[in-house]
Specification:
Elements (H helix, E strand, L loop, with lengths): L6 E4 L7 H14 L3 E4 L3 E3 L9 E7 L5 H15 L2 E6 L3 E3 L5 H9 L17 E6 L3 H6 L3 E5 L6 E5 L2 E4 L9 H5 L4 H9 L3 E5 L11 E2 L2 E6 L5 H7 L1 H8 L5 E4 L8 H12 L4 E4 L17 E2 L2 H11 L5 H12 L5 H16 L1 H17 L6 H14 L14 H15 L7 H12 L7 H23 L27 H14 L4 E2 L10 H8 L5 H14 L5 E3 L2 E3 L2 H14 L9 H22 L10 H15 L4 H10 L1 H20 L3 E5 L20 H9 L9 H5 L2 H16 L1 H6 L1 E4 L2 E2 L6 E8 L2 E8 L19 E3 L8 E4 L5 E3 L3 E3 L9 E6 L2
Parallel strand pairs: 1-2, 1-20, 2-5, 5-14, 7-11, 14-15, 15-16, 17-20
Antiparallel strand pairs: 3-4, 6-13, 8-9, 9-10, 12-13, 18-19, 21-23, 22-25, 23-24, 24-29, 25-28, 26-27, 26-29
Helix pairs in contact: 1-2, 1-26, 10-18, 11-20, 12-14, 12-17, 13-14, 13-17, 14-16, 15-16, 19-21, 19-25, 22-23, 25-28
């Protein structure tokens, strides 16, 4: 297998087509990547902006160029010597009338040949949560009628522009008569005869007959564990791999599958030994990928979390927390917040999925002659979900692994040792079901329960933490990232080094990303927000000043001010993260564009927090007040504020640029395969999706790299326009390509700085055979007064050199100079013109 040395993620759609990607190949080649890493390319819904709502897994989407465009792109990649990694979606397909398989299931019910391709409970009618109100209300309003389907001419329930086909048996030989039906009672009777039930979208959380992706009813779970379903849904994927068009696969949401290892084993056999495979998997604290999975690693969310240990000032984080708590006038307990978020998910957002599990457990208990009240089972199941520390276990029909059983025992111990009263009989029953300790007559029920339980714990964790708790705790937004822990760790450089050493041992070829299409904000925004931890007093004083300036924009509502103080804090921090260094606050067009992006973000943040408004029950008065406050920050009536704001955050802006460069160099030099998310080789100050899926300015990026001379780091403009970051990226990617074994196989050695400024330096070495590289980076570049002057300089410290770097001649990758080493390297005597050193051994 030819492993990647670096990947480049492209988001297709939103203007990005195969032909446009083909035109970028020379730029990507010059940048130094080895593989293009493509978002899903298979046919998706007509309005898809991301491609994860696949409608046909065996067709390349005509909307982005189709098969012909794809082959032109592949030819260009091959000519340039670049590979291709595809993002594939085995867990779900679009529950859409545009999906041929799904539409066939709607029409024919369980008689459809695709009925068991989807994870549907066929003990009842297929629920379709597509109506704006209850069926009876919609019918009474005259919004439902029988009309011919425009595509097939067959009779269908017409609801605005959607046509839900009637089962042929319900009108066989009476098509014309059925099309003339208008009586509401007759329509209701006809609806009752269908294999599906049209229902309100609001009822999906408690009454859905199919497995969905997280809370998205428009994405139906696929039973890829069935060999026939696997083969039919992977036919084109495997054809592209076997034909040599594709060299790697990224597996979306592996934890959604019934049997992840079984799927990966089958995929590995079918794709062959030379196919590079990584999985989207969020690892909990201390969790590692199962060692027997035939993959190279994850897509790297845990790498982002590890970086915070290197760039967040753990000595001052408590001061920031204290300032935030003083503002909100409460001291929230992180564990209590997590519990509240999980209770909300189990009791409301995933009520239906939990109810199915309770029903299965009750049936097993009843069959065993020891019935347990469903209320007790519901409470016990909820507590287990709440106490679950990771996304899921990996039991199969054959049973649970020993480490999964140990994890489950730990969860039960946590519950029984808590203050929450739970039925011990209910806990014991659920534990026994999960472990397979049930009578033979209940074994199939146990397998079904275990599978559904394992497919539910992940969504509950994700929606509780990433999409609820991380939008509630606004103390330091840069920490609220996919893969981060809800209970904050102790931030330390030692912790970071340990994580990198584990990464080297457990997944040296996993992807190391710093921005993705799913991250809450772009990597440069996150790096800037980390800098707030270096000067919390300056930040909190600034927030107080900004709040005073804009106090008249706060509205008093019956349940309190809008925005409340913690939301004001969040607004200013999000705004601090999104401003590009060269943003012109006097450019009315640019200000208006930023305002539009920012308000879209803010609406999503408020609804995800689920405090005073929500997606399912939005409060117009509250949202209008908060969005109005944010609009005021951009208003011509408040025209001086944005300029004043940018001037105030200048120390954090510049410290963030130093953090950004350090973060980039770590990604390129540490264990793992670095991924460059589209355009982030320049700058990525994006907000949460859909903002982070906008197309970069490739014309500027390409021209700049094509004509670039080595930037002078003393020139502040190269920091502010992203050209320094882009050039460093290209330089270090070239180094990776020239010495792939050093980075793919080399050890990771922390190098401990000595001296009074040791806390301001990150140093590590990569070593393999007689090759080695030493990396030294500046961190915590704000001084005690919160002043940051670009460019920052490396602190004057001494490094004790590892054995492979002692008494060697080292080549400075950036300056081209040679350095003679002994057993130590004194940075006081080294060239500190840049805030980093990358020293490579000479052969």
């Amino acid at each position: 297998m030819k492993f990647p040395t670096a990947t480049y993620r492209l988001q297709f759609r939103n203007g990005m087509t195969f032909d446009r990607a083909r035109d970028l190949v020379p730029y990507l080649k010059q940048l130094g990547i080895s593989h293009l890493y493509a978002s899903p390319i298979f046919t998706a819904t007509s309005q898809s902006t991301h491609g994860y709502d696949v409608t046909d897994a065996n067709e390349i989407d005509p909307a982005i160029g189709g098969r012909a465009g794809f082959e032109r792109m592949v030819a260009a990649l091959k000519e340039a010597g670049l590979g291709l990694i595809l993002d594939i979606v085995p867990n779900h397909m679009a529950a859409s009338l545009e999906t041929p398989w799904w539409k066939d299931v709607i029409e024919h019910g369980e008689e459809s040949r695709y009925a068991h391709h989807f994870d549907i409970d066929w003990s009842r009618r297929l629920t379709l949560p597509v109506l704006g109100d209850d069926f009876e209300a919609v019918l009474e309003a005259g919004d439902l009628a029988i009309k011919p389907d425009p595509e097939t001419g067959k009779p269908a329930f017409a609801y605005f522009d959607a046509f839900y086909p009637l089962n042929p048996s319900t009108y066989d030989g009476r098509g014309t008569e059925i099309l003339e039906t208008s009586d509401k009672a007759a329509l209701a009777q006809l609806h009752d005869k269908q294999p599906y039930r049209l229902m309100s979208w609001r009822d999906a959380a408690r009454d859905l007959s199919y497995r969905r992706f997280f809370e998205v009813t428009g994405l139906a779970g696929v039973r890829v564990e069935d060999e026939a379903v696997f083969e039919e849904s992977h036919r084109l994927i495997l054809e592209l791999v076997r034909d040599g068009a594709v060299q790697g696969l990224r597996i979306d949401h592996i934890d959604g599958l019934a049997d992840p290892k079984g799927y990966l084993d089958r995929l590995h056999r079918a794709a062959g030994q030379d196919c590079y495979i990584v999985v989207e998997k969020i690892l909990g604290a201390g969790e590692q990928l199962p060692a027997d999975w035939p993959v190279s690693g994850t897509t790297g969310y845990e790498f982002i979390a590890a970086l915070s240990n290197a760039l967040v000032d753990g000595q001052k984080i408590e001061a920031l927390q204290s300032a935030y708590q003083d503002l909100v006038e409460e001291h929230p307990d992180a564990k209590a917040q997590l519990r509240a978020a999980k209770l909300l998910m189990t009791g409301r957002n995933f009520e239906g999925e939990a109810s199915v599990l309770v029903g299965l457990a009750a049936k097993i208990a009843e069959d065993a002659g020891c019935p347990i009240p469903e209320s007790d089972l519901k409470a016990a199941l909820s507590e287990i979900m709440i106490a679950f520390p990771v996304y899921r276990t990996y039991g199969t029909p054959e049973g649970m692994r020993a480490d999964d059983k140990a994890l489950l025992d730990h969860v039960i111990e946590t519950i029984t040792g808590s203050d929450h009263t739970v039925s011990t009989e209910a806990l014991a029953l659920i534990t026994g079901i999960l472990k397979g300790d049930v009578p033979n007559s209940s074994m199939q029920g146990s397998v079904t329960f275990r599978t559904k339980f394992q497919q539910l714990t992940g969504p509950i964790m994700a929606k509780s933490v990433e999409d609820t708790l991380f939008f509630r705790n606004n103390m330091l937004l840069g920490l609220n990232e996919v893969g981060a822990e809800p209970i904050r760790p102790d931030f330390s450089l030692d912790h970071f080094h340990r994580e990198m050493q584990v990464r080297k041992e457990r997944q040296p070829l996993g992807i190391s990303g710093t921005s993705t299409h799913d991250t809450k904000r772009g990597e440069d925004a996150r790096a800037r927000l980390y800098a707030i931890s270096e000067a919390p007093h300056i930040w909190s004083e600034a927030v107080a000043d900004w709040r005073a300036i804009n106090s008249k924009a706060v509205r008093e509502l019956p349940d309190g001010p809008a925005p409340e103080p913690e939301v004001e804090w969040m607004i200013y921090q999000a705004l601090a993260g999104v401003l590009s260094p060269n943003f012109n606050t006097q450019d009315e067009k640019a200000v208006e564009e930023l305002k539009k992006r920012f308000l879209t973000y803010l609406e999503k943040a408020l609804r995800e927090a689920k405090m005073r408004t929500d997606w399912g029950d939005s409060r117009e008065d509250y949202e209008e007040a908060v969005l109005g406050y944010a609009s005021h920050l951009f208003s011509s009536d408040n025209k001086d504020f944005l300029g004043y704001f940018k001037k105030t955050i200048k120390p954090f802006l510049e410290a963030g640029l130093a953090n950004s460069l350090a973060q980039t160099i770590i990604k390129l030099m540490a264990p793992g395969i670095p991924d460059i998310y589209q355009g982030s080789e320049g700058f990525d100050f994006s907000l949460v999706d859909p903002d982070n899926r906008r197309e970069p300015d490739y014309e500027t990026l390409s021209k700049r790299l094509a004509t670039a001379q080595k930037p002078n780091a003393d020139d502040i403009s190269v920091w502010h326009d992203g050209s320094l970051k882009q050039y460093v990226t290209a330089t270090l990617l070239d180094l990776r390509q020239s010495t792939p074994d050093l980075f793919n196989e080399g050890d990771y050695l922390p190098v401990k700085p000595q001296g009074s400024s040791a806390a301001h330096v990150i140093a590590f070495a990569r070593m393999h055979a007689d090759e080695a590289v030493l990396v030294v980076l500046a961190r915590f570049t704000l001084d005690r007064d919160g002043v940051q002057v670009l460019p920052p300089r490396l602190a004057e410290v001494t490094l004790e050199m590892p054995n492979g770097l002692r008494d060697r001649r080292l080549h400075d990758v950036w300056t081209g100079e040679e350095i003679e080493t002994s057993d130590v390297l004194d940075l006081a005597g080294a060239d500190k013109a840049y805030p980093f050193l990358v020293l490579k051994t000479l052969r």
